[in-house]
Amino acid sequence: MRxxxxxxxxxxxxxxxxxxLRAFDGMVRARFAGWSVRWAFTSPLVRERLAQARQKSDSVxxxxxxxxxxxxxxxxxxxxxxxxxxEHEEVCAAAAxxxxxxxxxxxxxxxxxxxxxxxxxAARALARHLPPDRLPDEDVVLMGHGARHAAAARYADLxxxxxxxxxxxxxxxxxxAMALEHILPRLxxxxxxxxxxxx
Length: 199
Hints:
Elements: E1 3-9, H1 15-31, E2 36-41, H2 44-52, H3 60-69, E3 74-79, H4 86-98, E4 105-108, H5 116-128, E5 139-144, H6 153-165, E6 169-173, H7 180-183, E7 192-196
Parallel strand pairs: 1-2, 1-3, 3-4, 5-6, 5-7
Helix pairs in contact: 3-4, 5-6
């Protein structure tokens, strides 16, 4: 039996983003010794840039075809998405297609904020990682991708959970109802910290 973990991310276009993905890769490899760890990227632009740099640039479907060709029999797909939006649905669809093959089983893990209980856990974890130099009355804005999908409501749930822990922590998204222009009027401190809520 050959087993693999397929980590699925949007991808990263900056050195810091790639470093974060490498660090995540290292943690997964340490935790799941004996499993082959592979990557797939959902962003066509990221895949194109990787291909131009002659680096692996698999989509989810291409990565699954490659794993089947290499005779892996069990594949755990772990998306690094924040919510179970359209991108996550595409990952699930690709896994369901691959799972039709008689010689390979595919299972998909949940994104970060899949269930209401995940929101409370994530809020507590994020609160522990606020900037250490921040003063208690300084605002922090955590920015996520956002989505035009029902699952985007999880961002609002996370915002409420974080504000219950710290009234100066806000959650915004690059699109949708929680866009930055909706948060700006609530910011009252002279210095505001901007933190990514991206994978």
